[in-house]
């Protein structure tokens, strides 16, 4: 613990080696460069999680978190998490979030990620409750109190510890790709009134003109029922997280209680 603490204290200074300096006094240390993912190693940044051409989030096979950082100040993040449902423990909701943009190591050792605000996406799905999914823009600047890159003694691969703004540790992530696997770091979804002359013409042309209406980030964003899949053809805004998969997550959460309550038939087990 002592070793760990002193290591963490020394890290901000080590980071300065080989780091570039930004105009704001922040730096981009190289030890954090790469694509990192939690143990499930199934949620990864890049085209496997968000498809900007169809404007869809693609559901990974397991929940997890992934961050990618480049040495020139770009980041991308992918979250796929189950949300416990206290009223119906076997029936959790799930959330997928994707963002990319700029990151920097601040002078006090904290990290700031600043997303490109028109590009972030969130999909919230609670199939058991109401069988609805809500697909919206997502724009959340994040501050991490500090980070530490070490070699994991058990797996012998680089591991990243990120600490939230309040100092609480996030799930440990391991290095999956270096250089990182990321989507283009430029704005993927330029708005009609925005940078219409940007170089990403193809995407601008395909645009989000149809999708823009329901993508407003509002608490009362439109809800779509499961029967509305046809609407997906219009703007690709109707998305569903696989309810069966969520059910499995719920089962893991409730353990044997869930199994006994729901019975073996629901599990597809023939006794
Ligand atoms: C994680 O997944 C990637 C891509 O499938 C693979 O290349 C890598 O070896 C995996 N890493 C671990 C630690 O399982
Ligand atoms: C560290 O610096 C960042 C960026 O300047 C700032 O937002 C944050 O509040 C600072 N944290 C502390 C603990 O001072
Ligand atoms: C995105 O978040 C930032 C920081 O909170 C805010 O300044 C900006 O206006 C937001 N953009 C949109 C489109 O909501």
From TrEMBL:
Pfam families: Rot1 (PF10681). One of its GO terms (biological process) is 'de novo' protein folding. One of its GO terms (molecular function) is unfolded protein binding. InterPro entries: Rot1. It is a single-pass type I membrane protein. Residues 1-19 form the signal peptide. The keyword Transmembrane helix applies. The chain crosses the membrane at residues 246-263. One of its GO terms (cellular component) is endoplasmic reticulum membrane. It is found in: Endoplasmic reticulum membrane. Keywords: Endoplasmic reticulum, Membrane, Signal, Transmembrane, Transmembrane helix. Belongs to the ROT1 family. Required for normal levels of the cell wall 1,6-beta-glucan. Involved in a protein folding machinery chaperoning proteins acting in various physiological processes including cell wall synthesis and lysis of autophagic bodies. This is Protein ROT1. It comes from Oleoguttula mirabilis.
């Amino acid at each position: 613990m002592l070793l760990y603490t002193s290591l963490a204290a020394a890290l901000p200074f080590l980071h300065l080696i080989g780091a570039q300096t930004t105009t704001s006094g922040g730096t981009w240390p190289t030890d954090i460069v790469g694509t990192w993912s939690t143990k499930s190693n199934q949620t990864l940044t890049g085209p496997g999680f968000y498809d900007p051409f169809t404007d869809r989030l693609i559901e990974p096979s397991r929940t997890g978190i992934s961050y990618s950082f480049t040495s020139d100040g770009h980041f991308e993040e992918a979250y796929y998490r189950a949300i416990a449902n206290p009223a119906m423990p076997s029936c959790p909701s799930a959330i997928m979030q994707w963002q990319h943009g700029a990151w920097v190591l601040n002078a006090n050792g904290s990290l700031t990620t600043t997303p490109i605000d028109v590009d972030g996406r969130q999909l919230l799905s609670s199939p058991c409750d109401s069988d609805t999914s809500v697909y919206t823009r997502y724009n959340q600047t994040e501050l991490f109190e500090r980070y530490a890159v070490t070699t994991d003694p058990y797996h012998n691969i680089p591991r990243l510890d990120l600490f939230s703004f309040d100092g609480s540790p996030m799930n440990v992530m391991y290095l999956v790709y270096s250089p990182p696997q990321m989507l283009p770091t430029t704005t993927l979804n330029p708005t009609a009134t925005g940078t219409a002359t940007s170089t990403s013409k193809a995407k601008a042309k395909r645009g989000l003109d149809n999708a823009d209406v329901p993508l407003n980030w509002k608490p009362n964003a439109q809800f779509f029922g499961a029967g509305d899949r046809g609407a997906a053809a219009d703007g690709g805004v109707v998305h569903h997280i696989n309810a069966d998969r969520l059910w499995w997550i719920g089962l893991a959460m409730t353990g044997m209680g869930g199994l006994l309550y729901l019975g073996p038939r629901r599990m597809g087990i023939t006794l």
